[in-house]
Amino acid sequence: MAFSHVIAAPAPLSLPATPSNVTSITKDSGATVSWRHPGTGVTSYTITPYIGASPQSPTTIASGSTGSITGSNGNAYLQGTVTGLTNGTAYTFTVKANGSSGSSPESSQSGANTPLANLVFGDDFNGAANGDIDPEWWVYDNRCGYLAQSEVEAYLASQCVLDGSGNLKLTAQHTSTTVPRYPSDPLFPGNVTQPWRSGACQSNTRTYAPSTGNFLIVEARESVMADAGNGFWPGFLWLEGSAFLTAWKTDPNQTGWNSTTMAEIDIAEWPSGQSGTTQFVENSWNGSAGDPSSHAPAPGGGYDATAMHVYSVKWKPGVSCAFSLDGSVQFNSGHLAASGASFFLLIYLQMVAGGPTTTESCFVDYVHVFDSPT
Question: 203: closest CA among 162, 249, 161, 157?
Answer without folding.
Answer: 249
